[in-house]
Amino acid sequence: MRNVATLTKRELMAYFLSPMAYIILTVFILLSGYLFFEFLTFSRRADMSGIIGFMAWLLLSVSPMLTMRLFADEFDSGTIETLMTAPVTTLEVVLSKYLASLVFLLVLIAPTLLYAAVLFGFGKPDPGPIVAGYFGLFLVGAFYLAVGMVASACVRTQISAAVVTFILLLSLYILGYLVRPDALDPLSKALRYIAFTHHFFGVFTKGIIDTRDVVYFLTMGLFCVFLTTVIVTVRRWR
After folding, report:
1. What is d(CA 99, CA 7) in angstroms, rounded to the nearest whole number?
2. DSSP string, 195-237
C-alpha cells in the first residue's frame, strides 16, 4: 500500500501541474453554475435532479481528457519501462493512476456543493435526493474514468485515448435507450444491464440508492482495473 500511496501522489502532481486540469475545472464549474441558476430561475423549485443529471453529462464529456494521459503518454514517451523497473507491481501502478483520477474527480465535484448550500439558504429542499444524486454522480464519474483508463492502456497517443473513451461512453449511453425497457429476452436484459444509463438516470437523480446499482458501478470499476492490469502487462512484454 505504501507503493500505491507514493505513486498516487506522483500522479496527482502530474494532474495539478497540468494546465489542462485547471481548464477542465474552470469550464466544469462555469457551465454547471450557469445551468444551476438557469434551472433555478425557470423551475422555481428547490430541486437539484436536473443539474446533477447535466453534471453527469458534463463529466462524460471531460472524462476522456482526464484519463487520456494515464497510460498512453507513458507508452508513447517510453517512461512505462522506467516505471515498471521500479519495485512496484503492475496492479499498484494501475491502482495509483485510478485513485489519482478519483481524487481529481472529487476536486471537480466539490465546488458544486455550493449549489446545494444556495438551495438550503433560500428554501427547504429534501436532502435525500441531493445526497443520493451526488453519491450517484461520483459513482458514474468513477465509471467514466475507469473506462477511460482502459482505453488509455490500449492506445499509444493521448488524442486516440480521448477519442476512444468518448466513443465508448457515448455508445454505452445510447445503448441504454436502444434496448426496450419491457424486453424480456436474455440479450436485451444483458445489454440493459451493461448500459450505465439505467443505473444512474432516473435512479440516483430521484433520490433512490439501490444496492444493485451501487454494485454495478463497483463491479464495473473493479473489472476495468483488472482489465487495465492485464492489458498493461501484455503490452510490456510484447
Report:
1. 10
2. -THHHHTTTGGGT---HHHHHHHHHHHHHHHHHHHHHHHHHHT
Number of structural domains found in the chain: 1
pLDDT in tens, 47-68: 777 888 889 999 999 999 999 8
Residue type, 7: L
| Cα gap 167→47, rounded to integer Å | 31
How far is the C-alpha of 206 from the C-alpha of 47, rounded, in Å? 10
How far apart are alpha carbons 10 and 92 in whole angstroms? 13
The crossing angle, in degrees rounded to 10, of helices 90-109 and 211-236 is 130
Give the structural domain span for 202: 2-236
Give pLDDT tens digits for 98-125: 999 999 999 999 999 998 888 887 777 7
